[in-house]
Automatic annotation (TrEMBL):
Residues of the R3H domain: 20-83
Record-linked InterPro entries: R3H_dom, R3H_dom_sf, R3H_sperm-antigen, SPAG7
SMART domains linked: R3H
Single GO term (MF): nucleic acid binding
Chain residue ranges for the region called Disordered: 99-140
Pfam families for this protein: R3H
Protein name per its UniProtKB record: SPAG7 protein
Database matches in SUPFAM superfamilies: R3H domain
Compositional bias annotation for Basic and acidic residues: 99-114
Length: 195
């Protein structure tokens, strides 16, 4: 119906007008922010996605850095930063967690991290700890095995003749692999000649 189309057109024009007015208002606020000398960053009221995108665009045109923060759609807001006060990753992380950014606390954390890194480096330079367990397992089990048991066990260890370890004295075949192969080939040739 034509009246519905007319109503739609009117709503679209109204929507467009509101966006233009909102953009003008944001441009004024951003230019005030740029002129405010003691203000490195400005937090705007929560706004919807379209308004945030307009504000981001205005900030970009003005040569500012802008980020959105807040978890759900109703509470998301934009923060605008002057280029020379662009936020560090740490600062952004704080805003993402919903915390206030405290440069002094961040500096303290950075110093602690540096100290930890220096200690780690010093430990690396000292070299690895000597290999082996920090204590002797025999001390732990002395009440069970006594202090001579391990030495006695080591002394009595001999090759078990029934299991894999064959002393050289017991080996009958002392030929090398080449000698054994040559003998096999010779036997084969002899058999072929007989056939």
């Amino acid at each position: 119906p034509p009246e519905q189309a007319a109503r739609m057109k009117k709503l679209q024009e109204q929507d467009k007008r509101q966006k233009v007015e909102f953009r003008k208002r944001m441009e004024q606020e951003v230019s005030q922010f740029i002129q405010a000398t003691g203000e490195p960053r400005r937090r705007f009221q929560p706004m919807n996605k379209i308004e945030r995108s307009i504000l981001h665009d205005v900030a970009e045109v003005a040569g500012l850095t802008s980020f959105s923060f807040g978890d759900d759609e109703d509470s998301r807001y934009v923060m605008v930063f002057k280029k020379e006060f662009a936020p560090s990753d740490e600062e952004l992380e704080a805003y993402r967690r919903g915390e206030e950014w405290d440069p002094a606390r961040a500096e303290e954390r950075r110093r602690l991290r540096e100290l930890a890194a220096q200690q780690e480096e010093a430990e690396l330079e000292r070299g690895p700890a000597p290999p082996g367990p920090p204590n002797d397992y025999k001390d732990k089990y002395r009440h069970l095995i006594g202090s001579e048991a391990a030495k006695a066990a080591a002394r009595t260890m001999e090759a078990n003749k029934a299991y894999g370890c064959v002393p050289v004295a017991n080996k009958r075949d002392t030929r090398s692999i080449e000698e054994a192969m040559n003998e096999i080939r010779a036997k084969k040739r002899l058999r072929q000649a007989e056939d």
